[in-house]
Amino acid sequence: MRLPRFFGKKRGHRRTGSQAWGSIGEAVFYAALGGAGLGFAGLLLTGSLGVGADEKALPWARWWLWLFSMLIPGALLAFGIAGLVRIVRGWGKSEERQAAVEGLANLLGSMAPPEDGDRRPPGVPACDDLVNSPGTILRYRLPIESPESWTLVGMGLFAVLWNAVLVVLAVGAGLDLLSGRVEWVLLAVIVPFLIVGVAGVALFVRRLFLTTAVGTTQLEISDHPLLPGNSYGVLLAQGGSGTFESIALTLEVEEMASFRQGTDTRTERVIVWREVVKGWSGVQITPGVRFETHATITIPDGVMHSFASEHNAVRWRIVVSGRPERWAAFTRVFPLVVHPAVSDPQAKVRPLDTAAEVLP
Amino acid sequence: MTANDRANGTVRQAMPRVSMQFDRAVRIYAPEQELAARYDVEGVLCDTVRAVEQSVLWYTEGKGEEDLGVHHFRRFEAAAERAEAVPSGTVTVRLPASPLSYEGVIVKIRWCVRLRLFFATGRDFVSEHMFDLGHLAPARGLVERLV
Amino acid sequence: MITSARDPSVGNPFCTRHVRPGRLLSLDATGRPVDLAPLVSKLAAAGISAAVVGPHGSGKTTLLGHLADALEARCERVIRMRVGRARDAVKLLGAVAGARPGGIICVDGWERLGVAWAFVVRQSASAAGVRLLVTAHRAGPLPTLWECTTTPALLEAIVASLPGGGCGSIQEADVQEAFRAASGDIREALFLLYDTFEARARTARQASA
């Protein structure tokens, strides 16, 4: 662990102190936040701060004031824990790599630059997470790049928690009213809570409806990783209900470059090659019966393989895009890893599974 | 440079010139092929060179921060070793399978043999000599910019 | 210094390798190099904290880097830091605590600290006898050492300084258009010129193939 250096010519990224010391400082800060939260909560619970359950001793104290008061230490504790977790996860990693990892939570472990001891071709990302799910018909089932389920879960969680607090407040206010007490401050607080709560539920229900209506998209592939000059079978399975004006399967190559613009880190992504593998129009999908179809993708000869370094990447992907009749268009991305062409002409690529040969 | 200059310690280091000859005229190498290059350093007094570093590496170029991967590295520091590296030397290495040289739109990958000379004055001089690993066609161009 | 056996005009002269902060000279609005000596003397003599101000992409980070180099060359004790988020204030306070009196901390991205943290860091530095040299988008509590402004002439001078003089495929009209499209943000304009150069080089390559 490098000690802070204040003298000497700066080289490389010109960071003067050790990142470790910086992280330690941050960890102390977040630990202090969490400690403050715990301490505050403890004082509240023991009634030391006067916001307690003993309303007879303190006639101005109200149960709902006590509830709100607990939110402050709760928030401090949550920030403290979240900060410490973030520091532990990011220990030793650059800001750019952390930003990249946080952006694609599920899959960037598999797309991370190769580490020492790896047997992959140098500069080629790992595909372990892309081949750990067997397909039902073809060899592998590909994971989706940014699963919408996480967004749905997040929205649902927020709606549940927020409305739980709202219910507690509303019940309490109701009981107060029944006992002849009118808490105007509480009623005023409930109004914005109600607005946000209703909006949260509405957004969640809408998203749930959309996800259900459009349905899940699954993609299986006959082999992985891929090699230039070879063809592979894919099986597309689209769920949902209703009519889809069009569904298209596209093979793409994306370049990604992240750079520091002053104090911002920005990432630019461009598609440099695209081939529409297959398209369908007027697809009728019945609930419970998925639209399943086979296709063949071919990785052309002489193309760039998948590449990943700390700030730059070349990524291959299959994109399934659909246009449902009654809903907004959707796009689902399935990452692939293409290795450099084998140098040994005797080496053969594993043929398509005979049980899953692509049918015209 | 005169003897007086040396005695006074006011040796001025002229800019070195490095010429490098690869074993392939076209400088395009297949993955896992052996690369051999011979170089000559001119305009340098060998006894002013403190150390020499040879490396074979790739780096990215384009719109992103530069990344770099060193495939081969050798440092010559002891006097007996330095004689192997200046005023002339050779670099022989088996190249890896990847990453291939790539002429993309916002990401490019370049390979080079890099020679770094460290002088007793504290200065250093770097010379890069490019070659291609693999023979990929350049990316055709921008299809779509993603937001 | 790097010399290359390859023709320098082959690569894109606007790639980050050539245009990132620190690779370009600090130029003023007329395109002439900024004279660092009086700025450095002013900082050293007054023993004050100061700011380099200017809009996005106007060369603040580049100038800050060159000033830090110049201060180090004068044997000043310099610490360099970059602020990305408000929580970097903790690291900054640590640097202030560890710096010796009379030292300078060069901070890129001062405004990202936020008003409260900026006040705390300023007061801590003042109490510790440590000077601050920061970059900011607008003038604030710290006196302005230099104001960066951008002009088409500045962009033209930068382009001319790039390998190959920016190369023949980029004309003055392209530079003017890039400056206009980027609303004066030099960094953004250089990236637009990257795209222009790249597209033309690709077209030329395909035409000759």
Residues in β-strands, percent of chain C: 5-15%
Structural class category of chain C: alpha/beta
Shape of chain C: elongated
Oligomer: heterotrimer
Provide the number of structural domains of chain B: 1
Principal-axes geometry of chain B comes out as elongated
- Helicity level of chain B: under 10%
CATH fold-level label of chain B: Immunoglobulin-like
Run of helices and strands of chain B = HEEEEEHEEEEE
The largest sheet of chain B is: 6 strands, mixed
- Give the uncertain stretches of chain C in residue-range form: 1-9
Q: For the record, give the distance between the C-alpha atoms at the N and C termini of chain C, rounded to a whole number.
A: 34 Å
- Kindly give the count of domains of chain C: 2
Query: How many distinct beta strands of chain B?
Result: 10
CATH class of the largest domain in chain C: Alpha Beta
- CATH architectural label of the largest domain in chain C: 3-Layer(aba) Sandwich
Helix content of chain C: 40-55%
Q: Work out the helix count of chain B.
A: 2
**CATH class membership of chain B:** Mainly Beta
Class per helix and strand makeup of chain B = mainly beta
**From N to C, what is the helix and strand string of chain C?**
EHHEHEHEHEEHHH
Question: What layout of secondary structure does this protein have?
Answer:
The complex is a heterotrimer of chains A (360), B (147) and C (209).
Chain A: H1 19-45, H2 63-89, H3 95-103, H4 108-111, E1 140-142, H5 148-178, H6 184-214, E2 217-221, E3 230-238, E4 242-261, E5 264-285, E6 291-299, E7 307-308, E8 312-324, E9 330-336
Antiparallel strand pairs in A: 1-2, 2-3, 3-6, 4-5, 4-8, 7-8, 8-9
Helix pairs in contact in A: 1-2, 5-6
Chain B: H1 3-8, E1 17-22, E2 28-29, E3 34-42, E4 49-62, E5 68-76, H2 79-85, E6 88-94, E7 102-103, E8 107-119, E9 124-133, E10 144-146
Parallel strand pairs in B: 2-9
Antiparallel strand pairs in B: 1-3, 3-6, 4-5, 4-8, 7-8, 8-9
Chain C: E1 2-4, H1 16-19, H2 36-46, E2 50-53, H3 60-73, E3 78-82, H4 88-98, E4 104-108, H5 115-128, E5 131-136, E6 144-147, H6 152-161, H7 172-181, H8 186-208
Parallel strand pairs in C: 2-5, 2-6, 3-4, 4-5
Helix pairs in contact in C: 2-3, 4-5, 6-7, 7-8
